[in-house]
């Protein structure tokens, strides 16, 4: 399964609203800007926000002879996207499915999308550890070059939840690539001064304690919030921002052969 994908990255968070979809999309956009072929699979069945963030909300996926054809962000087809959101009439439609139906939809997402050859497949998951995660983990355990990035915010309560994610990954045998701390201070768009609104450094200390690589701290930047809905990469639109620098560093870590399995 997924043998045409060089690297699969699951993006996980213990809590909702920590910016997991923002991190997944900026990661995908940064990799695309660097010339990689990328797939972004949104399996947040209850709150699929990737089509909105990438400004692809009114697009439809089509069934080809070999499965679903993803929606492409660019005409060069460097970033393909698949989301349950493409199958709903509106973003506000709730998917109220029981476990078995969710499980079979996720299996279809993993098996029946014609991605073509990909350098990276990024999988945006729902928050927490639910049926969806168990299905994904069971299906991906055998896939070489599969790992998870954990996203958290600096507050203690979010860190506690990410600790549970670490245990979950270790129990299910998924390699943890690293932790990203999002909303780590507020970067003023005028003078670039960064103010710690919450406590800071929680993600880094959890990474140190758990012996997991710490990949970077992304500040709250209102300009990044505004990129959501437009499908624009911070590395291209805000090249001088801290966010751009951090995503560049994160992608360097992912593409450096000495840091991968
Ligand atoms: N670094 C940031 N700077 C500014 N705004 C941000 C940042 N990260 C996320 N946001 C904003 O916070 C909100 C929540 O982000 P996002 O949807 O990515 O979170 P999530 O963890 O995926 O949520 P969910 O639990 O619903 O899946 C969005 O409005 C997003 O634009
Ligand atoms: S951080 Fe700098 S630019 Fe932003 S409000 Fe304060 S002084 Fe003004």
From TrEMBL:
Keyword flag Flavoprotein: no
SUPFAM superfamilies associated with the record: P-loop containing nucleoside triphosphate hydrolases
Entry note: cofactor: Binds 4 [4Fe-4S] clusters per heterotetramer. Contains two stable clusters in the N-termini of NUBP1 and two labile, bridging clusters between subunits of the NUBP1-NUBP2 heterotetramer.
Domain of life: Eukaryota
Annotated binding of ATP, by residue: 14-21
Family of the protein in this entry: Belongs to the Mrp/NBP35 ATP-binding proteins family. NUBP2/CFD1 subfamily.
Name of the featured protein: Cytosolic Fe-S cluster assembly factor NUBP2 homolog
Organism of provenance: Arctia plantaginis (Wood tiger moth)
Lineage, top ranks: Eukaryota, Metazoa, Ecdysozoa, Arthropoda, Hexapoda
